[in-house]
Amino acid sequence: MDTDPSDEAINLTGVQKSYGSTKVLRGVDLKVRPGQILGLLGKNGAGKSTLITIMCGMLCPDSGQIRICGKDPSRRSIGRYIGYAPQDIAVYPHLSVEQNLTSIGRIQGISAAKSVQRAHEIIEALGLENQTKQNAGNLSGGQKRRLHTGMALMHHPRVAFLDEPTVGADVEARNRILHMVRSLADEGTAVVYTSHYLTEFEKLNAAIAILNEGTIAASGTIPDLISRYSDSSIHVSFASGTLPDASGWREEEGHLTAEGPAEDPGRAIARLLADPQVDDSAVSDIRIVRPSLESVYLNIVGTEKTADEEIKEK
């Protein structure tokens, strides 16, 4: 996806970073347009947080070029363009929800009146109206997570980095945060978003970049990645329990199984039923398992469990 560099909110070329002899980033190239949400995926320790702190200007790369809104993020002036919510919650416990937000607004150079106005916009968007005057230290974990995220967005940043903003949040908090992130992008903010809940990227209609072994192993839209890296799985059962010897199919747990292109599993089924070895009247069940972002991710990075998988097991 080639674009005019002047239209890119984020532009990384050949970014490398090592800690001692350990190479964390091995030449990362990345582009994000205004209004685009980029889901950054990778195993724990893959370098996602390191990459984000480099893009925020808080860590220098060993080599490579980084431009945020056309500027070098190591310059102090870049802060007005960036909103950053790290994974660890950081709120002022002895200030109210409203004061947490307005104090950040004032630090960002927003007038007192506009800080109050913006604070109440965020409070409403995140469903914290009943906690407006409550000290942040007395909030629930999910409420603190919402406030923490809202503080990063007080100044209408042109680029927002949200590092696992829903980790530990309850369902209401997650939905509120996701809705705000989508609204933020619709207003033109470029968002880099990390999460172990892969379904969140689908809800956000995010583009995806998968970081593996220090490089971007795959990137694109979710449908594009599914078509390139994952197949549909087809399972056919027979009433008699006796499985025919069909070309291109294998026996698995009492049924025939085959993989086929995600967009056309019906073609494989038609070939099976046309096979002279198969009595189509004996077919008792046909089940198609559609590929997902999770299957793409696991195909690329290996068998690390995602948060979605862990939820299914509980």
Automatic annotation (TrEMBL):
PANTHER family cross-referenced by the UniProt entry: ABC TRANSPORTER ATP-BINDING PROTEIN, ABC TRANSPORTER ATP-BINDING PROTEIN NATA
Location, primary (coarse class): membrane
Short name of any one Pfam family annotated for the protein: ABC_tran
Boundaries of every ABC transporter domain copy: 10-238
GO cellular component, one term: plasma membrane
Keyword ATP-binding on entry: yes
Alphabetical list of InterPro entries matching this protein: AAA+_ATPase, ABC_transporter-like_ATP-bd, ABC_transporter_ATP-binding, P-loop_NTPase
GO molecular function: ATP binding; ATP hydrolysis activity
GO BP: response to antibiotic
The family this protein is said to belong to: Belongs to the ABC transporter superfamily.
Subcellular location: Cell membrane
Keywords of the record: Antibiotic resistance, ATP-binding, Nucleotide-binding, Transport
UniProt keyword Transferase present: no
Topological type in the membrane: Peripheral membrane protein
Organism: Scardovia wiggsiae F0424
Protein name per Swiss-Prot or TrEMBL: ABC transporter domain-containing protein
SUPFAM superfamilies in alphabetical order: P-loop containing nucleoside triphosphate hydrolases
